Automatic annotation (TrEMBL):
It comes from Lynx pardinus (Iberian lynx). Residues 8-257 form the G-protein coupled receptors family 1 profile domain. Its main location: membrane. This is Olfactory receptor. The chain crosses the membrane at residues 58-87, 164-186, 207-228, 240-259. Putative odorant or sperm cell receptor.
């Protein structure tokens, strides 16, 4: 599944790069999303596979800190990036005549940079304050990776300040983007319902279908896991959510955008047709 993740996402990036019809803001952000997915899976899965094969499952201190920084940062980047993509879909559906003027190259670049910088800064802050904690000796990380809450549980001191910092960052990088996505889709659905023709409504919905599917999967399980009546999720739930995001989401994203998107399917057909012609010429 890891190999499928790498291959699938890099093929999406290559396809967008090669087909000029896909040089639009939506696919620019999709390129960023694919790179985030590959990087996130790479920060967790190879080490996890090595531990599956090793009898003594150990990770150096520096490697654990690096894994926490990259996985936490890339997760935050993805949440912000999905909110940015929701804004792009909002402009495409609600203000299509001014779409190219609003979503110009400069704005798209700034939005992408904001996503990467905000996720990275939050991760850097959390990593620094987490690894400054005095850790108890002879304890192990009860998780599939150096996940934030799993590492914090190793501390021999009161971690209430760390838990407050985690809660604040969750509100900023999870709930704030989610609320922006929600507001965008309320406006999008309201606009779609006002379209008179059935064909027009169908076309407008397909414009957002792939992104909406990814949003439901990405935000849904995280909110279901962490926004609960009790104070914190169980360790088993933490492990399940990590497996979901490290293995399943990076595989599903390219499949969703390939299967449900007419432009991507058309680009695939064009590319395969060109490869077939080239193969025929070489054979003759």
């Amino acid at each position: 599944m890891y190999l499928v993740t790498v291959l699938g996402n890099f093929l999406i990036v290559l396809l967008i790069r090669l087909d000029s019809r896909l040089h639009t803001p939506m696919y620019f952000f999709l390129t960023n999303l694919s790179l985030v997915d590959v990087s996130y899976a790479t920060s967790i899965v190879p080490q996890m596979l090595a531990h599956f094969l090793a009898e003594h499952k150990a990770i150096p201190f520096v490697s654990c800190a690096a894994q926490l920084f990259f996985s936490l940062g890339l997760g935050g980047i993805e949440f912000v990036l999905l909110a940015v993509m929701a804004y792009d879909r909002y402009v495409a559906v609600c203000d299509p005549l001014r779409y190219s003027v609003i979503m110009h190259g400069g704005l798209c670049t700034r939005l992408a940079i904001t996503s990467w910088v905000s996720g990275s800064l939050n991760s850097l802050m959390q990593t620094i304050i987490t690894f400054q904690l005095p850790m108890c000796a002879n304890k192990y990380i009860d998780h599939i990776s150096c996940e934030l809450l799993a590492v914090v549980r190793l501390a021999c001191v009161d971690t209430s300040s760390n838990e407050i910092a985690i809660m604040v960052s969750s509100i900023v990088l999870l709930m704030t983007p989610f609320c922006l996505v929600l507001l965008s889709y309320i406006q999008i659905i309201s606009t779609i319902l006002k379209i008179q023709s059935r064909e027009g409504r169908k076309k407008a919905f397909h414009t957002c279908a792939s992104h909406l599917t990814v949003v439901v999967l990405c935000y849904g399980m995280t909110i279901f896991t962490y926004i609960q009546p009790r104070s914190s999720p169980s360790i088993l739930q933490e492990k399940l959510i990590s497996v979901f995001y490290a293995i399943l989401m990076p595989v599903l994203n390219p499949m969703i955008y390939s299967i449900r998107n007419k432009e991507v399917k058309g680009a695939w057909q064009k590319l395969l047709g060109q490869l077939s012609e080239l193969t025929s010429k070489l054979a003759t």
